[in-house]
Write a structure and sequence with these properties.
Largest sheet: 5 strands, antiparallel
Structural class: alpha+beta
Distance between the termini: 6 Å
Number of helices: 3
Strand content: 35-45%
Strand order of the largest sheet: 1-8-3-5-6
Low-confidence stretches: none
Order of helices and strands: EEHEEHHEEEE
């Protein structure tokens, strides 16, 4: 079985946000997969998708501080036409990535006990982001 879905996340403020529930809710077919693979792709160059710890609320704040240190707005970027947060957002997206793949077993994502899917929203005033979900399995 192959399932392809595109859906839009709600708008989130700048930072890292758990979206595991949004992804699972958008894919009810997941419960019918005995063994498979879910690929999640974000269709934006100023946001990212990743897997990280989902238990401690300090993790998203620390991730945001760390990526801001790596790609600060104060860097002398050449591409500035879309505002001071745009080029740093592109750098963060390149570093973190635009897709993840997650094994599926008995209708559930095979995430670790403390793992969740994160949207990295790297713009100050972004609208909802589009995700493409591709599920393959039996």
């Amino acid at each position: 079985m192959w399932v392809h879905k595109e859906f839009r996340l709600p708008a989130f403020r700048r930072g890292f946000h758990l979206v595991t529930r949004h992804v699972c809710d958008a894919l009810p077919e997941l419960k019918n997969v005995r063994v498979g693979l879910l690929h999640v792709f974000i269709r934006h160059t100023s946001a990212s998708i990743s897997i990280n710890e989902n238990a401690d609320p300090d993790v998203p704040a620390d991730l945001e501080r760390a990526v801001n240190a790596v790609a600060p707005e104060s860097f002398p970027y050449v591409h500035t036409i879309e505002g001071p947060d745009d080029m740093p957002a592109h750098v963060k997206s390149v570093l973190i990535g635009s897709s993840i793949s997650i094994p599926v077993h008995d209708g559930k994502l095979c995430l670790g006990t403390w793992q969740g899917i994160y949207l990295g929203e790297h713009r100050n005033h972004a609208e909802g982001r589009s995700l493409v979900l591709t599920l393959q399995g039996e």
